[in-house]
UniProtKB/TrEMBL annotation:
This is RNA methyltransferase, TrmH family, group 3. GO terms for cellular component: cytosol. GO terms for biological process: methylation; RNA processing. Keywords: Methyltransferase, Transferase. Residues 19-93 form the RNA 2-O ribose methyltransferase substrate binding domain. Gene3D superfamilies: 3.30.1330.30, 3.40.1280.10. NCBIfam families: rRNA_methyl_3. One of its GO terms (molecular function) is RNA methyltransferase activity. It comes from the Bacteria.
Amino acid sequence: MKQENRHIEEHSVDPPAGILAGRHAITEAIKAGRGINRILIADGMHGGVRELRDLARAHDITVDIVSRAKLDAAAEGARHGGMLAYAAPVSYVPVEEIISSVRARGEEPLLLLLDGIEDPHNLGALLRTADAAGVHGILLPRRHSVPLTETVARVSAGALEYVPVARIGNIAQTIRALKEDGFWIAGADMAGSDTYDKANLTGALVLVIGSEGRGMSRLTRELCDFTVRLPMRGKINSLNASVAGAILMYEAMRQRTAKDAVPHG
């Protein structure tokens, strides 16, 4: 009897925070609109795989085939049946929904696009500042970028509950679509054409912050309408991404609340 109870206990472990284990849990979470960062399926799995992959594709969720050993390690003893998913602490919001909500309030949208931010602490700090500076939403690429995680939520100190985050696919396509919708694209760059306080940061605007080490990608930089730089007088020629983003977000807020603010023509 003791052995039987021990066997039940070993198989009734809850998965770690932020992880959904098993096909049923993952499927219902997707249908309920919960944010899913990535789905892992054990190599060689057959039952229910096609249905889950089709559902994931319909919701633009990445699916990776991995070893069962990797699933076991991620599940930390929880039963997963060959499938698990990394869930975001909040649901992602479509870009169009963010923009329409802002314009319905009679405001000009201010968005932050993060090109390759991989440190969850930087993302959490950017979210916290975005909330304070009145940024309407953050655009987060699906690839080569940290997703929303429990660490991000913790560092954001609650801001994640108030600043909507959209996951985007191709950055270039997103920028082009936003331009067609009347947005100006301003990128932070060490060799920017204007200093941050001289550039016009009013109107429908997307501020682009590049990765911690490389900055914006070449294509992203080329698609910007203009780039801005932060003056450097010290020995170090770069700033942490969250610090640079904070300066630009507050400058945008200052300009947009000024009585003589003139939007882009």
